[in-house]
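Ops channel
N.P.: pipeline sanity check, posting one input/output pair.
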């Protein structure tokens, strides 16, 4: 496979996961973090970092809008639910694991 085709496939896969995130609003970020160790916010930070590496200046709010498909404040008010005690406990376990590396 040539490099251009590979890049096109990677870009298409990126667009697909973004669409998946935007379509499956019932999946909470804390659940993603607890199960996969990344969430929409992580993806936004990665997007922002990759843009910066290529000389493009995009702030966190703009990167989040790419991932969420709307301003984060709107997404949060429409779709984000309060975390349960069980979700928070699992998140804390994950935080300790991530701190250890």
């Amino acid at each position: 496979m040539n490099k251009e085709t590979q890049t096109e496939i990677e870009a298409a896969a990126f667009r697909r996961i973004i669409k998946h995130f935007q379509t499956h609003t019932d999946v909470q970020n804390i659940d993603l973090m607890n199960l996969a160790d990344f969430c929409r916010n992580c993806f936004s930070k990665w997007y922002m970092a990759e843009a910066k590496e290529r000389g493009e200046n995009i702030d966190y709010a703009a990167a989040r809008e790419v991932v969420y498909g709307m301003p984060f404040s709107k997404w949060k008010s429409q779709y984000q639910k309060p975390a349960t005690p069980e979700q928070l406990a699992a998140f804390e376990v994950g935080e300790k694991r991530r701190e250890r590396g």
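N.P.: looks fine end to end. The mean pLDDT is 95.
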